[in-house]
Amino acid sequence: MMAIAHYKSLDRFPTWMWIRDDGYTLVLGAPDDSYVFYSLQFPIDRLLAYPLYVLAVLFVDALILFCMYAVARRRAQRAVKPVTEALDALSRGQSAEVTFGGDLAEIGNRLTDVSRIIERKDSARALWIRGVSHDIRTPLSLVVGQADAIARRDDAPADVREQAGAVREQGMKIAALVTDLNTAAQLDYDAKPVQTERVALSRIVRDACARHINEGFDDAFPLTCNIDKAAADAAVLGDERLLTRAAENLLANARSHNPQGCAVHVALEPAGTGSVSMRVADTGCGAAPEQLDAIRARIERAQRTGTVAAAYGEEHGLGLVLVDRIARAHGGTFSVDGSQAGFTATVTLPLAP
Fold first, then answer.
1. Which stretches of the chain are DSSP H helices?
2. What value does the CA radius of gyration of the chain take, rounded to a whole number of Å?
3. What percent of the chain is predicted at pLDDT more than 90?
4. CATH number attached to the domain at 194-353
5. How many Cβ atoms sit within 10 Å of the Cβ of residue 337?
6. What are the angstrom distances between the C-alpha of 132 and each of 104, 129, 145, 153?
7. Rounded to an integer, what is the distance from CA 262 to the centroid of its chain?
8. Domain extent listing, the chain
9. Where is the Histidine kinase domain (predicted)?
10. Which of 73, 118, 179, 295 has the most CB atoms less than 10 A away?
11. How far is residue 129 from each of residues 12, 79, 124, 133, 186, measured CA to CA in Å?
12. Distance of alpha carbon 46 from alpha carbon 53, whole angstroms
């Protein structure tokens, strides 16, 4: 009985013993090799620590999985980063050339092909704009010149001089629009890189004011110019032609939106440490809050899309949007304000070191 209780077998036959309540003993046996018995013994302290062992194993497994995920994610980011950079460049209108190996080679080749196609289209568009602008400018100059000559003839009838003056005025507007289109093409498609040289803003302001007077606008739009002594020698690093265009567009904006005439004030003054502002304010009809919101919305749309053309076709044309683009191309800002009487536009630029 003791052997059965200890070994759970009798002569290699699996055997179980049960002492019943009535005092009899029931012995059951099974065929040889039909059961295997194991005797397990655990110290109580280890058995109590068993949940901690399970938690430790689970923590190590989770740590291994996290390390595998981090490594895989790092590799995926490293592989995809050139693709995202190329897409960002394309969204900004810049060229992108991506070289991949392995499974991503086809994607890189397609992105490079798309970039080259867009670049060719942009180049063709810029060339077309410059060609058409050149073809328009020559006969337009002749028309404006002849109309100006007729408008100045004392022996011409008054109605003829008036009509010639209207032709001259509209011709000059078309000439300004052609210039704006050329400038927009340069900035949008990098048809001509922005030059970087020291430019004296006081000279640009004086020249723009002189052209305003020489072209006969001073009668209907009397102009005052104030160059602060602290800004008299102010210079910026940039493109003189583009900065001149910005100054002329600000004056043209004051004239075009106040056909009844108004006073125009031009100021060049410091704008904090390391900056200078060029401000053009008029005493005309000004702009309602919703009009100011519309102007700012068009400027923001041009900034978001990266093209001046995105804001074309509306009431205010390209003028102010182009000024904002020129200011940003020189690291500056542009703002409009109508809270006071009239309309004020301000270009703020960083000073050259």
1. 2-7, 44-91, 105-152, 158-189, 201-214, 240-256, 289-305, 319-329
2. 41
3. 21
4. 3.30.565.10
5. 15
6. 42, 5, 20, 32
7. 37
8. 194-353
9. 131-353
10. 295
11. 104, 40, 9, 6, 10
12. 9
Q: Are 276 and 201 in contact (CB under 8 A)?
A: yes
Per-residue pLDDT tens digits for 160-193: 888 888 888 788 778 777 777 777 766 766 545 5
CA separation for the pair 266, 226 (Å, rounded): 6
The β-bridge partners of 344 are: 281, 337
Q: Which two tokens stand for residue 311?
A: 């804001």
Name the amino acid, one letter, at 342: G
Query: pTM for the whole thing?
Result: 0.59
DSSP, collapsed to helix, strand or coil, labels residue 239 as: coil
Give the whole-angstrom CA distance, residue 98 versus residue 106. 10
Cα(88)–Cα(339) distance, integer angstroms? 38
Phi, psi of 78 (to 5 degrees): -65, -35
Q: In this structure, what token pair is assigned to residue 300?
A: 């923001």
Distances (CA, A) of 77 to 65, 73, 74, 81, 147: 18, 6, 5, 6, 65
Give Cα separations from 290 to 256, 293, 297, 337 (angstroms).
19, 5, 10, 12
The encoded tokens of residue 250 equal 């600000």
